[in-house]
Design goal:
The chain is of the alpha/beta class. 43% of the residues lie in helices and 15% in strands. The strands form three sheets. It has an eight-stranded parallel barrel, surrounded by four helices. The two termini are 33 Å apart.
Length: 366
């Protein structure tokens, strides 16, 4: 960790953000070339002091995962597993391949330990991802995050999501529905009750159909929500997800807010629009987790995301109600050993607070 922060990170941070990100993905995809080496590294790093954890019918080697957006096309999923993550969520992927918004579109705010991105779901498309995973997928829990193609109007968004859902279905352990990115025009309109109900009902219906077709259990279906929601919005979303029998909520995506940043107004303005992730999002995403946990009376699993850089950050989200956590920006700033560091730290913190197991900590501060 110190090697990364003192030597490697300064070198990477001299590169444009997206260039450094692509270099990291390429390194991860090539660094552990054989399955034997990957499995050995993964076993050493991913084993949780808590033991195996079961969530929505899936068994996780540990509760720390990689959030969608880090590896949109699934090229480095095996490498990420080898770093010790208990699960990897690839995507967001769309039915139509798309180049995303014009570059530059990914920016660092080092003073805030944050990123701003307006990538716009740049990805090779659902078919390409499925083909890649058919040849080579990680052995850990794999989530696939699906979103709306930019060229598709909101009126036909359901059909677009269903097309992606059907393609990735055989390759996913769970599927996450992204209706909360700020970088696809009007996408967040799909978080409104009527639109969300229609979308999730259609996906669950197709889920049942595909489970019969593939002779397997239905895939756990989760929805990823924005942090920029009020109490009424959250109450509505919680009601829809429970009514449609979703397996969980991922809270949260990036924020459009720029409140409380340490970077100068000039620095912030120079980065332009986009979703903000990292340390500034930590407190608010935790509040959203707490609200969802309360509104669903702890009955709906929550994956907590936003501003996780260390075990204490993860512990706060778990106590608020998250039963799993994910990170993206923390990996950029803290380096490749972050998953093991968080898992070991969580075990120590839980012992310190007298929790006999991981589940006892979930929602303990409600």
């Amino acid at each position: 960790m110190k090697f990364y922060q003192s030597l490697l990170r300064p070198i990477l941070f001299r590169l444009p953000s997206e260039t450094a990100h692509e270099l990291g993905l390429k390194t991860l995809s090539l660094g552990l070339k054989t399955k034997v080496l990957r499995n050995a590294a993964s076993k050493r790093l991913a084993t949780s002091p808590f033991g195996e954890i079961e969530r929505f019918g899936l068994k996780f080697s540990n509760p720390v995962g990689v959030a969608a957006g880090f590896d949109k096309n699934g090229i480095a999923a095996n490498g990420l597993e080898a770093l010790g993550f208990g699960f990897v969520e690839v995507g967001t992927v769309t039915f139509h391949p798309q180049s995303g918004n014009p570059k530059p579109r990914l920016f660092r705010l080092p003073k805030d330990e944050a990123l701003i991105n307006r990538a716009g779901f740049n990805n090779d498309g659902a078919k390409a991802l499925a083909e890649r995973l058919k040849q080579n997928r990680p052995s850990c829990v794999l989530g696939i995050n699906i979103g709306k193609s930019k060229i598709v109007p909101l009126e036909t968004a359901v059909e677009d999501y269903l097309a992606s859902f059907e393609i990735v279905y055989p390759h996913a352990d769970y599927i996450a529905v992204n209706v909360s990115s700020p970088n696809t025009p009007n996408l967040r309109e799909l978080q409104k009750a009527d639109a969300l109900t229609e979308l999730l009902a259609a996906l669950q219906k197709r889920n049942q159909e595909l489970s019969l077709k593939h002779h397997c259990a239905e895939k756990p279906l989760l929805v990823k929500i924005a942090p920029d929601l009020n109490e009424s919005d959250l109450e509505s979303i919680a009601g829809v997800t429970v009514d449609k029998k979703l397996s969980g909520i991922i809270a949260t995506n990036t924020t459009v807010s720029r409140e409380g940043l340490r970077s100068s107004a000039k620095e912030i303005a120079a980065r332009g629009q986009g979703g903000l992730s990292g340390a500034p999002l930590k407190k608010h995403s935790t509040e959203i987790i707490s609200a969802i946990y309360r509104l669903t009376q702890g009955a709906l699993p929550i994956i907590g995301v936003g501003g996780i850089f260390n075990a204490q950050d993860a512990f706060e989200k778990i106590c608020a109600g998250a039963c799993l956590v994910q990170l993206y920006t923390g990996l950029i700033y803290e380096g490749p050993m972050i998953a093991k560091k968080i898992n070991d730290g969580l075990f120590e913190i839980c012992n310190k607070h007298g929790f006999k197991n991981f589940d006892e900590a979930v929602g303990s501060k409600q």
